[in-house]
Amino acid sequence: MSKAFSASRAVTALMLAGLLLLPLYSQLSGNLFILTLFTRIVILALAAASLNLIMGYGGMTSFGHAAYLGIGGYAVGILAQEGIGSGFVQWPVALAASAIYALVIGALSLRTRGVYFIMITLAFAQMAYYVASGLARYGGDDGLTVYKRSAFAGLVDLSNRVQFYYLCLACLLGVIALIWRIVNSRFGLVVQGLRSNEQRMQAIGFPAGRYRLVCFVISGTMCGLAGALLANNTDFVSPAVMYWTRSGDLMVMVILGGMGTLFGPVIGAVVYLVLEELLSQVTEYWALIMGPLLLVIVLFGRGGIMGLLGRLDRG
Amino acid sequence: MLLVVEQFLNGLQFGLLLFLLAAGLTLVFGIMDLVNLAHGSLYMMGAYFAATFAAWTGSFLLGALLALGATLLLGIVLEVTALRPLYGRDHLDHVLATFGLILFFNEAVRLIWGPAGLALPLPAWLTVPVPILSGIYYPAYRLAIIAVALVVALLLYVGVMRTRIGMLIRAGASNREMIGALGINIKLLYTLVFGLGAALAGLAGLMQAPILTVQIGMGENILILAFVIIVIGGIGSIRGAFLAAIFVGMIDTMGRAFLPNLLRQVLSSTAASTAAPALSSMLIYLLMAIVLVVRPEGLFPANRR
Lengths: 315, 305
Prior knowledge:
The complex is a heterodimer of chains A (315) and B (305). Chain A has 13 helices and 2 strands. Chain A is mainly alpha-helical and 315 residues long. A two-stranded antiparallel sheet of chain A has the order 1-2. Chain B has helices at residues 2-32, 39-57, 60-83, 91-113, 124-127, 140-162, 164-174, 176-181, 186-208, 218-233, 238-266, 269-294; strands at residues 129-133, 136-139. Chain B has a two-stranded antiparallel sheet. In chain B, strand 1 (129-133) and strand 2 (136-139) form a beta hairpin.
């Protein structure tokens, strides 16, 4: 942070500039697909950033983060189905529902540590998946089509690709700014302290459980926003968005980019999803390459891309 | 009455199957401190191997036996090549690396066997209904699963509690460095334990194969149930895994069978038929939540001294 110029900062700035100018490129080249792809990337980057708040800064490895994508998405989808099309209603409900779910799940699973926590968050997310599959009124297994995107009284038109893309990007940057404020606040320092040494923090007199739980709820709420965006992006929400491999994808993005760094998850999401797209164009069996690649990244790439850039800076 | 007995046996059979899976998982975690998400892939591979070998040899038993050997071998190869570098690393690394392995296995299966599922037909002598009580018949194959799983559970218990290897395994679970320092070849022990866990998962997979179809991703849902069992039973505890597995198998099966009717007594029939599927799939997670509230370390934690 002391140096004005560093490789990680340069890459971050470059990436942000690229994300900002992408619609321009898409319009000029007529490549509409890239805008669709990157809208999805930006939304999932938002989800990854929210996961990073608890996983990277808080040391809480949640393997069930995709549940919020589904909860946010279903809040939008169900309200739209019932005739409430206003985003001013849909989105707060999506956030509130995610927050409540996070509060309940967090209160239960934060009683445990380590592997238990990983397994329990996974199991609860799977429960959410099965519940969504059982919602016969809202499509069950087949999912729910969102016929009309959230309406914001003419302020933004979500059906306009460029406007929607910028809305997603604004949400992403807003959430990152918020995470930055949280991480550097007193609250954020306590949470990070708990990651390093819980006993010591408790001895100083901080109630560990409550701090963790609040952090967990904030993260879940942020991810619920990503869920609401995702449902609007695909005009569809199904139990599949909560499937546990999606939670795994989010974890991979965070770790690939660099855990506990502000922009790491965004870089991770861009690299992971672009790589997935490129590999799937080369071969139908892209996961055959992606799987072992993950293993290699875990074995040799400590600290993710941000960590690599950091080592580059130190020479 | 008929339905109750039948569902009770179904629950027992499912629970025992879950135990085979959970036992391997809990052994590997308890002894090697390795979180192996790819355990479900080994379950899947067991089923695919069995379907292939059975078609090949024309005999169900021979196919199953070959499949068991193949999964054991696959487990050993996997341990030596991919997992060894992961020991002593953070659990998060394990989760990611084995998540990568799942992607790999699913894709490899799609490449080799194709995206459509396989069927593993049963030989005629296993499809006959067997009378168990007066007037109550139960499929022979499901009884066979119960018998095999019980025998394996017993062998596992005797093996772990009464033999020298079992003693080393238990010693490894409680203090890894110490048994290494005492001159035990810990690497070999790890490979052995992992192979055993793989064979158990393969056995569960190949026994389940004739009941369900053999398909990609079949190991993933059941793996999560195995996680729930380990959380309930306490990590590293075989006894805990056994009791929790039976419990979960029973509750899941009974819930699915009887909850809709039970709900119909209190709710209107449309409300009941909407709520029942969602609620019955939630049951075991609710059970897990209750266990967590009461005893966060599980019902039978392994290293309670």
